[in-house]
Amino acid sequence: MAGNSFGTLFRFTTWGESHGPAIGVVVDGVPPRLPLSEPDIQQWLDKRKPGQSRYTTQRREADLVRIMSGTFDGVTTGTPIQLLIENTDQRSKDYRNIADRFRPGHADYTYWKKYGIRDYRGGGRASARETASRVAAGAIARKVLGTGVTIRGALVQIGPHAVDRGSWDWRATEENPFWCPDAAAALHWADYLDSVRKAGTSAGAVIEIVASGVPAGLGEPVYDKLDGDLARALMTINAVKGVEIGAGFAAAALSGEDNADEMRIEDGRVVFLSNHAGGILGGISTGQEIIARFAVKPTSSILRPMRTVDVEGNEVEIETHGRHDPCVGIRAVPVGEAMVACVLADHLLRYRAAGGDV
Residue 265 — pLDDT band, cuts 50, 70, 90? Predict the structure, then answer.
């Protein structure tokens, strides 16, 4: 199976399945002498791990990470870093009833058509369990970027219910189970998701990632544009069906003068009067905040019976059991942060390799 690695200079490869003994990642291209210990990685994994509220899957995984290689005396050595996360709360029996049936909305059918075999236990390699490995890689990417770059994510919409941007407060994202920057919206979402869960269905979401402190000059035109790589990175996250940078699709409704981010000089440096471009022009960072949003579809595993087919070509019904998120977008927030961190770290190293001074 190809396609398990991501990045150019900062490159990572994830491995493992949802119900296997462990998952993990190998990260290559990390410069030597960067301070790195397991707590540096664990703090980000703790943001993503399941079972932290009634609005996420109740699978109980500690997601404890172990550094297997690539460090010595608390710093990176410049060699590949292998990270291991054991699976400790699998319930494979929950999936026996779908061993020969394809779940609508999942990758069951496409994996079977491509490989002639599939791991039906929680989706195997296609499971969102794999994203824990990405978050671990993202923790290392943040070390490469340094403290001058801040990457924060927020849930800005669940189902049809969006936040009030006039009430945006980053501190609120740490005070509710949704990473929501609008405290009033978070209260409404709680009631909404309770009703969604009781109805045996699910809801989609939109996540916004903001990277501050990114220097100007990152990005490799024409085909390795920074926004192109960010879009690809975010589209590889499970259940993501759309990505936009800056104003995104809303830019189509703007006039040319409204969309253009005009520039002035303040204290001898260039400043932009707006940021519809999301901090990227011509595929290269401008030094403004980089803003990306991605849409996550409703969780495909729901309690309602649905029509499908089996491996013999029979038309059947299916009921999905097990522990599932009523809205997978909630735990996608730290995953989105991690993928943005990995792209920025990769392009920072590429910029330095080309003679850049940041």
Answer: very high
SS3 of residue 251 by DSSP: helix
Reported pTM: 0.94
107-125: burial string, b at 16+ Cβ within 10 Å, e else: bbbebeeeeeebbbbbbbb
Contact 91, 51 (CB under 8 A): no
Contact by Cβ (8 Å): 20, 14: no
Chain position carrying tokens 């920025």: 344
* Cα–Cα distance, 5 to 2 (Å, whole number): 8
Q: Is the CB of residue 9 less than 8 Å from the CB of residue 114? A: no
CA separation for the pair 200, 215 (Å, rounded)? 46
Q: What is the DSSP string of 128-146?
A: GGGHHHHHHHHHHHHHHH-
> In what side-by-side order are the strands of the sheet with 5-6?
5-6, 11-16, 22-28, 81-86, 65-67
Give yes or no for a contact between 231 and 241, defined as CB atoms under 8 angstroms apart: no
146-167 per-position pLDDT tens digit = 999 999 999 999 999 999 999 9
Q: What are phi and psi of 38, to 5 degrees?
A: -60, -40
At 289-316, the pLDDT tens digits run 999 999 999 988 888 889 999 999 999 9
Tokens for 285, please give them.
Answer: 């960072």
